[in-house]
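Following up on my earlier message about adenosine-5'-triphosphate. Here are the inputs again, as you asked, copied directly from the submission form:
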Amino acid sequence: MFKSSPEYDSMTEQRTPKMSAKGVNVYYGDNHAIHNISLDLFRDEVTALIGPSGCGKSTFLRCLNRMNDTVASCRVEGSISLDGDDIYASKIDVVQLRARVGMVFQKPNPFPKSIYDNIAYGPRIHGLSNNRTDLDEIVTTALEKAGLWNEVKDRLDAPGTALSGGQQQRLCIARAIAVNPEVILMDEPCSALDPIATAKVENLIDELKGRYAIIIVTHSMQQAARISQKTAFFHMGDLVEHGDTTEIFTSPKKERTRDYITGRFG
Ligand SMILES: Nc1ncnc2c1ncn2[C@@H]1O[C@H](COP(=O)(O)OP(=O)(O)OP(=O)(O)O)[C@@H](O)[C@H]1O
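Thanks, got it. Here's what our run produced:
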């Protein structure tokens, strides 16, 4: 369905974005929620979306795997591509798209199934395993990558919902990983977690960034500074500024960004 593309174009010596948004506008009925957003997202990088409540961070994030399709009043204009292919094209299979562009939500949401079946569900419906041995391997690997294997290996049949909040969130990350995504979207993945569980998820994000493009919505500027390489600052539906995280936090170019990061509003 999609053509594969190199991460790096040796002719132009430029990195090819994994995903690219161009002129994206989103409306909920008459509410023009985000305005003309253009942003490139790269593999091997964590991009943090920051900004005050209601500025459109989650709306933009949800456009990247068409989660907004589920909101009846929502209209998306502009273009968003994955490896150069328009994800809003009519030929696109949205279930496949959401496997390639996985999502982790604010509140851990394991299925009411065993730990094993939480992970095995996606690979089963996407036909990624031919037999139980393959499936066992996928489950083990996903739990290892999510840093959860040692904590759950002796109780794979226990319900996912019986894990602690932090473990549940890592289970949800393992579930996203199990279907071989290329991009992982995270919508405030630590906001329901305590500081220790947050630190584990942040370490995990850092380990995962070498394999995926990760885009994370966070209310915490400290978290954005700790875990992201790129930061995009949204305000009232505008993408005000985007660039290297260090630069955004130490020498922002726009006054609105400066005011936000210095705590003048937000
Ligand atoms: N499902 C929805 N239906 C109608 N309007 C919505 C919906 N989701 C978001 N909006 C509106 O879109 C605008 C942007 O909201 P969004 O949730 O994207 O902001 P946000 O920056 O992620 O906020 P927060 O940090 O509080 O989660 C707001 O005006 C909000 O009321």
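One observation from looking it over: The mean pLDDT is 92. Hope that helps, and feel free to reply on this thread.
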